[in-house]
Task: inverse folding
């Protein structure tokens, strides 16, 4: 079994519900299991201004799926939850986004799949929730904790857990 770190987020519709449902769908056939899940964080939009704030979460999965199969599953989950990558603006509003950040210590640079994710260490909206579950994890030679210390995380707010969770 491999350890995969995923970043999830969105800013349209019932985002927290979409994040919960995405995790359920990623794991529904038993080939992936949640080992750790961060809190949800409200984060400023990144890449395109003038859009609603995002809600982001990171998840650590134990999985028997290979990297490409896990990516394909993540893309299928996005589609099932209403994301249409072909019609949306890059870095614009979306109901769900799932990024494969790392998969064990695998390094891949292929069309459609780069591991570790090429921008994981530059984005506070990934690093803040990732540090909550894997601060000491080293990805591409850099610990999550050290990467977080190098970015501006202002404006990021941990959200309270919904009632009943």
Result:
């Amino acid at each position: 079994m491999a350890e995969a770190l995923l970043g999830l987020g969105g800013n349209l519709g019932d985002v927290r519900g979409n994040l919960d449902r995405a995790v359920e769908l990623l794991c529904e056939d038993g080939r992936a299991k949640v080992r750790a899940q961060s809190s949800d964080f409200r984060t400023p939009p990144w890449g395109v201004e003038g859009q609603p704030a995002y809600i982001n979460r990171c998840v650590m999965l134990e999985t028997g799926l290979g990297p490409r199969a896990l990516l394909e599953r993540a893309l299928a989950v996005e589609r099932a939850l209403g994301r249409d990558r072909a019609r949306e603006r890059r870095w614009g509003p979306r109901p769900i986004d799932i990024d494969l950040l790392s998969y064990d210590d695998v390094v891949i640079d292929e069309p459609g799949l780069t591991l570790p994710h090429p921008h994981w260490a530059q984005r506070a909206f990934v690093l803040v929730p990732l540090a909550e579950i894997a601060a000491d994890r080293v990805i591409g030679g850099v610990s999550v904790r050290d990467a977080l210390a190098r970015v501006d995380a202002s404006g990021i707010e941990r959200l309270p857990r919904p009632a009943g969770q």
